[in-house]
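Entry 0007
Protein: Copper transport protein
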Amino acid sequence: MGKMMHMTFYWGQKVTLLLDSWKTETRKEYSLTLFACFLVSVFYQYMEDCRLRFKLLSSSSATASPPPSSVATPLLYPKSAANPWSPERFAGAVVFILNSAIGYLIMLAIMSFNGGVFVAVVVGLALGYLLFRSGDQDVVVVDNPCACA
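Output (C-alpha cells):
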C-alpha cells in the first residue's frame, strides 16, 4: 500500500502536487512550486477577465435585448437569436474551457493540503483580481458566481 495523502493542512516543504512526478524535496523546488501556483492563480484571473469581456462582446452583438426583469428570471427569458458559432461566442467558449480547466487544477493543487500552496494560490488570486478585475465596474455581466464555472 502506498503513502497516505495528508487530510489536514501542513506546512512542510515536501509536497506532491497534481502528479506523482511533481514532488518537492528541497527548498528550491518548493519555492519554485509555490511561485508556479502563484503565477497560475494570477493567470486564472486574467483569463476570467478575458472570458467576461468575450461574453460582454458576444452579448452586445446580439440583436435582441432582454426585458428589465430578465435578470431576476434568467431561465424564463429565451436566448437571443445570435449565431452560436459567431467568432466572439466561439472564442468565449474556448476561453471558458481553458479557464475551467485551470480553475479545477488550482482546486486540486489546494487539495494537497499544503499551507504554502494554499497561501500562494489565495495571494495569486487576490493579486490577479486587483490587476485584472478590480476595475470591472464598467463590465456588468450576469454570470455564475462559482469560481470554477
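Curator remark: The first strand starts at residue 15 and ends at 16. The chain has three helices and two strands.
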